[in-house]
Amino acid sequence: MTKEGLVQTASSITESLMSISRMMSQQVQQSEESVQTLATSSRTIQETNEEFKNMTGTIQLGRKLITKYNRRELTDKLLIFLALALFLATVVYILKKRLFPFL
Fold first, then answer.
1. Contact 96, 103 (CB under 8 A)
2. Tens digit of each residue's pLDDT (9 = 90 or more) over 72-91
3. What angle do CA 15, 16, 21 make, to 5 degrees?
4. In sequence order, what E strands does 10-77 have?
5. 102, pLDDT greater than 90
């Protein structure tokens, strides 16, 4: 082996090592970007999960309010019916006393 051959071999090895170093650097950079993307995605998923939990509470509250409203509506209908029946009974009583006082 001559001195030029050794220099060329050393140069080739150095070039290969530098190429490997650049490739490793690129891989590390890609890995860092992937980790950052994963961290961002994880935060987004956690925020979405919290929002869904809040929405679940709101939906349950809405369901309770609608159920309560339906009960109120039924109660109101019943009260209106009873008031109408009392009114009609009063009208019939007054008409009976005025038209047929002897009964």
1. yes
2. 999 999 999 999 999 999 99
3. 95
4. none
5. no
Distances (CA, A) of 17 to 5, 13, 20: 18, 6, 5
Tell me, what's the pLDDT at 15?
95
Q: Cα–Cα distance between 98 and 35 in angstroms, integer?
A: 93
- Which tokens belong to 15? 């070039």
**pLDDT classification of 22: cutoffs 50, 70, 90:** very high
Contacts for 96 with CB less than 8 Å, ≥ 6 apart: 103
Tokens 């220099």, residue located: 7
**Which residues are CB-neighbours of 1 under 8 A, at least 6 positions away?**
9
